[in-house]
Amino acid sequence: MGVTLDLSRAAAGEPAQARPNLSGLTRPALAAALVSSAAVPPEKARMRAGQLWRWMHHYGVTDFDRMTDIAKETRAALAERFVVARPEVVERQVSRDGTRKWLIRTAPGIEVETVYIPDVGRAGALCVSSQVGCTLNCTFCHTGTQALVRNLTAAEIVAQVQVARDDLGEWPSPKEDRRLSNVVFMGMGEPLYNLGGVADAIDIISDNEGIALSRRRITVSTSGVVPELAALGARTQAMLAISLHATNDALRDVLVPLNKKYPIAELIAGVRAYPGLSNARRVTFEYVMLKGINDSLAEAKALVRLLAGIPAKINLIPFNPWPGSTYECSDWGTIERFAAVLNRAGYASPIRTPRGRDILAACGQLKSESEKVRASARRQAVAAPAATPDTAP
Ligand code: SAH
Ligand code: SF4
Predict the structure, then answer these.
(1) Residues spanned by CATH 1.10.150.530 within the chain?
(2) What is the CATH number of domain 88-376?
(3) 14 in catalytic set
(4) Angle CA 203–205–206, to nearest 5
(5) By Cβ atoms counted within 10 A, which residue in 229, 308, 323, 350 is the most buried?
Protein backbone atom coordinates (compact mmCIF):
# COMPACT_ATOMS: atom_id res chain seq x y z
CA MET A 1 0.00 0.00 0.00
CA GLY A 2 1.37 3.40 -0.96
CA VAL A 3 0.70 6.67 0.77
CA THR A 4 -1.85 6.57 3.54
CA LEU A 5 -3.04 9.47 5.52
CA ASP A 6 -5.44 10.99 7.94
CA LEU A 7 -8.58 11.63 5.91
CA SER A 8 -10.40 13.20 8.79
CA ARG A 9 -8.12 16.19 9.10
CA ALA A 10 -7.73 16.55 5.37
CA ALA A 11 -11.47 16.62 4.85
CA ALA A 12 -12.06 19.12 7.61
CA GLY A 13 -9.59 21.39 5.86
CA GLU A 14 -7.64 21.92 9.06
CA PRO A 15 -3.96 22.63 8.84
CA ALA A 16 -2.27 19.27 8.99
CA GLN A 17 1.25 18.04 8.63
CA ALA A 18 0.11 15.74 5.84
CA ARG A 19 -0.90 17.09 2.46
CA PRO A 20 -4.70 17.23 2.28
CA ASN A 21 -6.45 14.50 0.33
CA LEU A 22 -8.65 15.74 -2.50
CA SER A 23 -10.40 12.47 -3.23
CA GLY A 24 -13.18 12.75 -0.64
CA LEU A 25 -14.09 16.41 -1.05
CA THR A 26 -17.41 17.64 -2.45
CA ARG A 27 -17.18 19.59 -5.71
CA PRO A 28 -17.41 23.02 -4.02
CA ALA A 29 -14.83 21.99 -1.39
CA LEU A 30 -12.50 20.71 -4.11
CA ALA A 31 -12.65 23.98 -6.06
CA ALA A 32 -12.12 25.95 -2.83
CA ALA A 33 -9.10 23.80 -1.90
CA LEU A 34 -7.52 24.45 -5.31
CA VAL A 35 -8.05 28.19 -5.08
CA SER A 36 -6.77 28.54 -1.54
CA SER A 37 -3.66 26.51 -2.32
CA ALA A 38 -2.65 28.81 -5.19
CA ALA A 39 -1.76 25.68 -7.20
CA VAL A 40 -4.28 26.80 -9.77
CA PRO A 41 -5.27 30.35 -10.81
CA PRO A 42 -8.77 31.19 -9.49
CA GLU A 43 -10.24 31.58 -12.98
CA LYS A 44 -9.17 28.03 -13.83
CA ALA A 45 -10.25 26.43 -10.55
CA ARG A 46 -13.65 25.22 -11.77
CA MET A 47 -12.23 23.68 -14.92
CA ARG A 48 -9.37 22.01 -13.04
CA ALA A 49 -11.77 20.75 -10.40
CA GLY A 50 -13.85 19.16 -13.17
CA GLN A 51 -10.78 17.42 -14.61
CA LEU A 52 -9.62 16.20 -11.22
CA TRP A 53 -13.11 15.02 -10.40
CA ARG A 54 -13.25 12.76 -13.44
CA TRP A 55 -9.83 11.31 -12.76
CA MET A 56 -10.58 10.63 -9.12
CA HIS A 57 -14.20 9.54 -9.28
CA HIS A 58 -14.63 8.11 -12.77
CA TYR A 59 -11.18 6.59 -13.30
CA GLY A 60 -10.30 6.05 -9.63
CA VAL A 61 -6.72 7.24 -10.02
CA THR A 62 -4.61 7.78 -6.93
CA ASP A 63 -1.68 9.50 -8.58
CA PHE A 64 -1.56 12.96 -10.19
CA ASP A 65 0.85 11.65 -12.81
CA ARG A 66 -1.89 9.64 -14.44
CA MET A 67 -4.00 12.77 -15.06
CA THR A 68 -2.69 13.17 -18.57
CA ASP A 69 -4.88 16.08 -19.70
CA ILE A 70 -3.40 18.30 -16.98
CA ALA A 71 -0.09 20.01 -17.79
CA LYS A 72 2.98 18.47 -16.19
CA GLU A 73 3.86 21.60 -14.21
CA THR A 74 0.32 21.84 -12.83
CA ARG A 75 0.43 18.16 -11.84
CA ALA A 76 3.68 18.79 -10.03
CA ALA A 77 2.24 21.85 -8.27
CA LEU A 78 -0.76 19.80 -7.19
CA ALA A 79 1.38 16.92 -5.97
CA GLU A 80 3.42 19.29 -3.84
CA ARG A 81 0.34 20.41 -2.01
CA PHE A 82 -2.14 17.53 -2.13
CA VAL A 83 -2.56 13.78 -2.43
CA VAL A 84 -5.33 11.65 -3.94
CA ALA A 85 -4.53 8.58 -1.84
CA ARG A 86 -6.60 5.83 -0.24
CA PRO A 87 -6.61 5.07 3.45
CA GLU A 88 -4.90 1.90 4.66
CA VAL A 89 -6.76 -1.40 4.38
CA VAL A 90 -5.81 -3.12 7.61
CA GLU A 91 -7.60 -6.37 6.94
CA ARG A 92 -9.53 -7.96 4.08
CA GLN A 93 -11.66 -11.05 4.62
CA VAL A 94 -13.68 -13.10 2.15
CA SER A 95 -16.54 -15.29 3.33
CA ARG A 96 -17.38 -18.73 1.99
CA ASP A 97 -20.41 -17.13 0.33
CA GLY A 98 -18.39 -14.43 -1.47
CA THR A 99 -19.15 -11.62 0.97
CA ARG A 100 -16.09 -9.39 1.45
CA LYS A 101 -15.25 -7.32 4.51
CA TRP A 102 -12.59 -4.64 4.77
CA LEU A 103 -11.24 -3.06 7.92
CA ILE A 104 -10.07 0.39 6.88
CA ARG A 105 -7.94 2.71 9.01
CA THR A 106 -8.85 6.26 8.00
CA ALA A 107 -6.97 8.04 10.78
CA PRO A 108 -4.93 7.11 13.83
CA GLY A 109 -7.24 5.04 16.04
CA ILE A 110 -10.16 5.23 13.60
CA GLU A 111 -11.01 1.87 12.05
CA VAL A 112 -14.10 1.34 9.96
CA GLU A 113 -15.75 -1.83 8.69
CA THR A 114 -17.31 -2.08 5.24
CA VAL A 115 -18.99 -5.12 3.70
CA TYR A 116 -19.71 -6.07 0.08
CA ILE A 117 -22.52 -8.54 -0.44
CA PRO A 118 -22.82 -10.07 -3.92
CA ASP A 119 -26.27 -10.79 -5.42
CA VAL A 120 -28.06 -8.21 -3.31
CA GLY A 121 -29.87 -5.25 -4.85
CA ARG A 122 -29.38 -5.09 -8.60
CA ALA A 123 -26.01 -6.85 -8.57
CA GLY A 124 -24.23 -6.35 -5.28
CA ALA A 125 -24.60 -4.05 -2.28
CA LEU A 126 -21.95 -2.27 -0.28
CA CYS A 127 -22.85 -1.84 3.37
CA VAL A 128 -21.07 1.30 4.59
CA SER A 129 -20.52 2.71 8.07
CA SER A 130 -21.44 6.26 9.04
CA GLN A 131 -19.89 6.32 12.52
CA VAL A 132 -17.27 4.38 14.46
CA GLY A 133 -19.36 2.77 17.18
CA CYS A 134 -22.84 4.05 18.00
CA THR A 135 -24.45 6.11 20.75
CA LEU A 136 -27.56 3.97 20.67
CA ASN A 137 -27.64 0.65 22.44
CA CYS A 138 -30.01 -1.61 20.59
CA THR A 139 -29.84 -4.76 22.66
CA PHE A 140 -29.45 -7.19 19.73
CA CYS A 141 -26.68 -5.26 17.93
CA HIS A 142 -22.95 -5.79 18.31
CA THR A 143 -22.10 -2.22 17.24
CA GLY A 144 -24.34 -1.03 20.07
CA THR A 145 -21.87 -2.50 22.57
CA GLN A 146 -19.13 -0.18 21.27
CA ALA A 147 -19.21 3.40 22.53
CA LEU A 148 -19.31 6.04 19.85
CA VAL A 149 -15.79 6.95 18.84
CA ARG A 150 -16.83 9.64 16.41
CA ASN A 151 -18.78 10.51 13.27
CA LEU A 152 -17.06 9.68 10.00
CA THR A 153 -16.37 12.51 7.59
CA ALA A 154 -17.82 12.44 4.08
CA ALA A 155 -14.30 11.60 2.86
CA GLU A 156 -14.15 8.58 5.16
CA ILE A 157 -17.53 7.36 3.92
CA VAL A 158 -16.57 7.84 0.26
CA ALA A 159 -13.26 6.07 0.92
CA GLN A 160 -15.21 2.91 1.82
CA VAL A 161 -16.79 2.91 -1.65
CA GLN A 162 -13.43 3.63 -3.30
CA VAL A 163 -11.65 0.83 -1.46
CA ALA A 164 -14.39 -1.64 -2.41
CA ARG A 165 -14.24 -0.58 -6.06
CA ASP A 166 -10.44 -0.91 -6.06
CA ASP A 167 -10.83 -4.48 -4.90
CA LEU A 168 -13.72 -5.28 -7.24
CA GLY A 169 -11.94 -3.77 -10.26
CA GLU A 170 -14.71 -1.25 -10.93
CA TRP A 171 -12.72 1.65 -12.40
CA PRO A 172 -13.48 3.43 -14.63
CA SER A 173 -17.15 3.56 -13.54
CA PRO A 174 -18.86 0.94 -15.67
CA LYS A 175 -22.09 2.02 -17.37
CA GLU A 176 -23.57 -1.47 -17.19
CA ASP A 177 -22.92 -4.76 -15.44
CA ARG A 178 -21.62 -3.26 -12.25
CA ARG A 179 -20.74 -5.53 -9.39
CA LEU A 180 -21.28 -2.77 -6.86
CA SER A 181 -24.74 -1.52 -7.82
CA ASN A 182 -26.21 -0.44 -4.49
CA VAL A 183 -25.00 1.30 -1.35
CA VAL A 184 -26.75 0.80 1.97
CA PHE A 185 -25.97 2.77 5.14
CA MET A 186 -26.39 -0.29 7.32
CA GLY A 187 -22.89 -0.69 8.69
CA MET A 188 -21.68 0.77 11.95
CA GLY A 189 -23.48 3.75 13.40
CA GLU A 190 -26.65 5.77 13.14
CA PRO A 191 -26.56 7.72 9.84
CA LEU A 192 -29.09 10.33 10.95
CA TYR A 193 -26.77 11.41 13.76
CA ASN A 194 -24.27 12.23 11.01
CA LEU A 195 -26.54 13.63 8.34
CA GLY A 196 -24.03 16.24 7.13
CA GLY A 197 -21.32 13.67 6.43
CA VAL A 198 -23.76 11.16 4.97
CA ALA A 199 -25.41 13.72 2.67
CA ASP A 200 -22.09 15.06 1.35
CA ALA A 201 -20.91 11.48 0.73
CA ILE A 202 -24.11 10.74 -1.19
CA ASP A 203 -23.55 13.87 -3.30
CA ILE A 204 -20.08 12.58 -4.20
CA ILE A 205 -20.93 8.96 -4.98
CA SER A 206 -24.06 9.83 -6.97
CA ASP A 207 -22.37 12.49 -9.12
CA ASN A 208 -22.91 11.62 -12.78
CA GLU A 209 -19.36 12.39 -13.78
CA GLY A 210 -17.94 10.08 -11.18
CA ILE A 211 -19.12 6.94 -9.45
CA ALA A 212 -22.62 7.80 -10.69
CA LEU A 213 -24.69 5.63 -8.39
CA SER A 214 -28.35 6.51 -8.69
CA ARG A 215 -29.81 7.96 -5.48
CA ARG A 216 -32.55 5.37 -5.86
CA ARG A 217 -29.92 2.71 -5.29
CA ILE A 218 -28.70 4.32 -2.10
CA THR A 219 -30.57 3.38 1.07
CA VAL A 220 -30.18 5.00 4.46
CA SER A 221 -31.26 2.88 7.41
CA THR A 222 -32.22 4.52 10.69
CA SER A 223 -33.27 3.27 14.07
CA GLY A 224 -35.83 6.09 14.07
CA VAL A 225 -34.36 9.57 14.54
CA VAL A 226 -37.71 11.14 13.69
CA PRO A 227 -36.74 14.84 13.63
CA GLU A 228 -34.13 14.18 10.90
CA LEU A 229 -36.32 12.19 8.51
CA ALA A 230 -37.65 15.14 6.51
CA ALA A 231 -34.15 16.63 6.18
CA LEU A 232 -32.76 13.28 5.01
CA GLY A 233 -35.35 13.07 2.24
CA ALA A 234 -35.03 16.70 1.17
CA ARG A 235 -31.23 16.76 1.23
CA THR A 236 -30.40 13.33 -0.24
CA GLN A 237 -33.44 11.84 -2.04
CA ALA A 238 -32.13 8.52 -0.77
CA MET A 239 -34.31 5.49 -0.17
CA LEU A 240 -35.38 5.09 3.44
CA ALA A 241 -35.17 2.01 5.66
CA ILE A 242 -36.56 1.96 9.19
CA SER A 243 -35.34 -0.48 11.81
CA LEU A 244 -38.69 -1.23 13.40
CA HIS A 245 -38.32 -4.66 15.05
CA ALA A 246 -41.41 -4.38 17.26
CA THR A 247 -45.04 -3.34 16.94
CA ASN A 248 -45.62 -2.00 20.47
CA ASP A 249 -43.74 0.57 22.51
CA ALA A 250 -43.18 -1.69 25.53
CA LEU A 251 -41.09 -4.12 23.46
CA ARG A 252 -39.48 -1.53 21.17
CA ASP A 253 -38.35 0.45 24.23
CA VAL A 254 -36.26 -2.61 25.15
CA LEU A 255 -34.96 -3.57 21.71
CA VAL A 256 -34.35 -0.05 20.35
CA PRO A 257 -34.04 2.23 23.39
CA LEU A 258 -34.30 5.32 21.16
CA ASN A 259 -38.00 4.42 21.04
CA LYS A 260 -38.41 6.00 24.48
CA LYS A 261 -37.60 9.33 22.86
CA TYR A 262 -39.45 8.81 19.57
CA PRO A 263 -42.20 6.23 20.09
CA ILE A 264 -43.77 4.17 17.34
CA ALA A 265 -46.71 6.50 16.59
CA GLU A 266 -44.34 9.45 16.03
CA LEU A 267 -42.01 7.30 13.95
CA ILE A 268 -44.82 6.10 11.69
CA ALA A 269 -46.12 9.66 11.26
CA GLY A 270 -42.60 10.76 10.29
CA VAL A 271 -42.35 7.94 7.74
CA ARG A 272 -45.71 8.83 6.19
CA ALA A 273 -44.39 12.36 5.65
CA TYR A 274 -41.09 11.20 4.05
CA PRO A 275 -40.61 13.15 0.81
CA GLY A 276 -41.14 11.22 -2.40
CA LEU A 277 -42.72 8.04 -1.00
CA SER A 278 -44.77 6.20 -3.63
CA ASN A 279 -45.39 2.68 -4.82
CA ALA A 280 -42.29 3.02 -6.97
CA ARG A 281 -40.26 4.38 -4.04
CA ARG A 282 -41.24 2.32 -1.05
CA VAL A 283 -39.88 2.56 2.44
CA THR A 284 -38.29 -0.61 3.78
CA PHE A 285 -39.12 -1.72 7.30
CA GLU A 286 -36.48 -3.95 8.83
CA TYR A 287 -37.60 -6.49 11.36
CA VAL A 288 -35.03 -8.68 13.10
CA MET A 289 -36.44 -12.11 13.96
CA LEU A 290 -35.80 -12.88 17.63
CA LYS A 291 -36.96 -16.22 18.95
CA GLY A 292 -39.86 -15.90 21.40
CA ILE A 293 -39.48 -12.11 21.55
CA ASN A 294 -41.14 -10.54 18.50
CA ASP A 295 -41.92 -13.44 16.17
CA SER A 296 -45.53 -14.47 16.96
CA LEU A 297 -48.27 -14.50 14.35
CA ALA A 298 -50.17 -11.94 16.45
CA GLU A 299 -47.18 -9.61 15.97
CA ALA A 300 -47.17 -10.22 12.23
CA LYS A 301 -50.83 -9.18 12.15
CA ALA A 302 -50.11 -6.14 14.31
CA LEU A 303 -47.37 -5.19 11.86
CA VAL A 304 -49.82 -5.29 8.96
CA ARG A 305 -52.22 -3.02 10.88
CA LEU A 306 -49.45 -0.62 11.85
CA LEU A 307 -48.21 -0.12 8.30
CA ALA A 308 -51.64 0.13 6.63
CA GLY A 309 -51.57 2.61 3.78
CA ILE A 310 -47.77 3.13 3.69
CA PRO A 311 -46.01 2.15 0.42
CA ALA A 312 -43.72 -0.32 2.12
CA LYS A 313 -41.80 -3.54 1.92
CA ILE A 314 -40.76 -5.50 4.96
CA ASN A 315 -37.36 -7.06 5.28
CA LEU A 316 -37.25 -9.90 7.76
CA ILE A 317 -33.72 -10.27 9.10
CA PRO A 318 -32.83 -13.53 10.82
CA PHE A 319 -30.98 -12.50 13.98
CA ASN A 320 -27.20 -12.79 13.56
CA PRO A 321 -25.52 -13.84 16.78
CA TRP A 322 -22.27 -12.27 18.00
CA PRO A 323 -19.91 -13.07 20.85
CA GLY A 324 -21.84 -12.47 24.08
CA SER A 325 -25.27 -11.89 22.53
CA THR A 326 -28.21 -13.23 24.54
CA TYR A 327 -30.92 -13.50 21.86
CA GLU A 328 -31.56 -16.43 19.57
CA CYS A 329 -32.71 -16.42 15.98
CA SER A 330 -36.30 -17.51 15.33
CA ASP A 331 -36.77 -20.96 13.77
CA TRP A 332 -36.95 -20.99 10.01
CA GLY A 333 -40.56 -22.26 10.01
CA THR A 334 -41.60 -19.42 12.32
CA ILE A 335 -39.99 -16.87 10.04
CA GLU A 336 -41.75 -18.35 7.01
CA ARG A 337 -45.14 -18.33 8.75
CA PHE A 338 -44.54 -14.71 9.82
CA ALA A 339 -43.67 -13.79 6.23
CA ALA A 340 -46.77 -15.54 4.93
CA VAL A 341 -49.03 -13.27 7.02
CA LEU A 342 -47.32 -10.21 5.55
CA ASN A 343 -47.48 -11.60 2.02
CA ARG A 344 -51.18 -12.32 2.33
CA ALA A 345 -51.68 -8.66 3.30
CA GLY A 346 -49.93 -7.64 0.07
CA TYR A 347 -46.46 -6.79 1.38
CA ALA A 348 -43.32 -8.00 -0.29
CA SER A 349 -41.50 -9.45 2.71
CA PRO A 350 -38.25 -11.07 1.67
CA ILE A 351 -36.37 -12.97 4.32
CA ARG A 352 -32.82 -11.65 4.25
CA THR A 353 -30.43 -14.53 3.79
CA PRO A 354 -27.66 -14.19 6.36
CA ARG A 355 -24.44 -13.40 4.51
CA GLY A 356 -20.86 -13.44 5.67
CA ARG A 357 -21.67 -14.79 9.13
CA ASP A 358 -18.40 -16.77 9.16
CA ILE A 359 -16.38 -13.53 9.01
CA LEU A 360 -18.74 -11.58 11.34
CA ALA A 361 -19.84 -9.46 8.41
CA ALA A 362 -23.61 -9.99 8.68
CA CYS A 363 -26.10 -7.31 9.79
CA GLY A 364 -25.39 -6.11 13.28
CA GLN A 365 -22.16 -8.08 13.70
CA LEU A 366 -19.77 -5.23 12.99
CA LYS A 367 -17.69 -3.86 15.82
CA SER A 368 -14.21 -2.46 15.42
CA GLU A 369 -11.48 -2.44 18.03
CA SER A 370 -11.28 1.35 17.84
CA GLU A 371 -11.52 2.81 21.31
CA LYS A 372 -12.76 6.19 22.24
CA VAL A 373 -9.63 8.29 22.68
CA ARG A 374 -9.65 10.67 25.60
CA ALA A 375 -9.56 14.33 24.66
CA SER A 376 -6.17 14.71 26.36
CA ALA A 377 -4.67 11.88 24.29
CA ARG A 378 -6.11 13.41 21.14
CA ARG A 379 -4.53 16.77 21.97
CA GLN A 380 -1.19 15.06 22.48
CA ALA A 381 -1.49 13.26 19.14
CA VAL A 382 -2.20 16.54 17.37
CA ALA A 383 0.76 18.18 19.09
CA ALA A 384 3.09 15.40 17.93
CA PRO A 385 1.77 14.14 14.60
CA ALA A 386 5.14 12.71 13.55
CA ALA A 387 4.62 9.97 16.13
CA THR A 388 1.64 8.54 14.28
CA PRO A 389 2.92 5.91 11.87
CA ASP A 390 0.08 6.05 9.35
CA THR A 391 0.26 9.76 8.66
CA ALA A 392 1.75 10.57 5.30
CA PRO A 393 5.26 12.03 5.28
N1 SAH B 1 -28.07 2.31 12.88
C2 SAH B 1 -28.85 2.07 11.73
C3 SAH B 1 -28.09 1.37 10.62
C4 SAH B 1 -27.14 0.28 11.00
S5 SAH B 1 -27.82 -1.22 11.58
C6 SAH B 1 -30.08 1.27 12.10
O7 SAH B 1 -30.17 0.82 13.23
O8 SAH B 1 -30.95 1.18 11.25
C9 SAH B 1 -28.41 -2.04 10.11
C10 SAH B 1 -29.53 -3.05 10.37
O11 SAH B 1 -29.04 -4.23 11.02
C12 SAH B 1 -30.63 -2.50 11.28
O13 SAH B 1 -31.90 -2.82 10.81
C14 SAH B 1 -30.33 -3.24 12.57
O15 SAH B 1 -31.45 -3.24 13.39
C16 SAH B 1 -29.92 -4.59 12.06
N17 SAH B 1 -29.22 -5.41 13.05
C18 SAH B 1 -28.46 -4.98 14.09
N19 SAH B 1 -27.97 -6.04 14.78
C20 SAH B 1 -28.42 -7.16 14.18
C21 SAH B 1 -28.22 -8.56 14.40
N22 SAH B 1 -27.44 -8.98 15.37
N23 SAH B 1 -28.83 -9.43 13.58
C24 SAH B 1 -29.60 -8.97 12.54
N25 SAH B 1 -29.81 -7.67 12.26
C26 SAH B 1 -29.23 -6.76 13.07
FE1 SF4 C 1 -26.70 1.67 16.51
FE2 SF4 C 1 -28.21 0.69 14.47
FE3 SF4 C 1 -26.84 -0.98 16.10
FE4 SF4 C 1 -28.97 0.34 17.03
S5 SF4 C 1 -28.96 -1.23 15.39
S6 SF4 C 1 -26.99 0.09 18.08
S7 SF4 C 1 -28.80 2.29 15.97
S8 SF4 C 1 -25.95 0.54 14.70
Answers:
(1) 19-81
(2) 3.20.20.70
(3) no
(4) 65
(5) 229
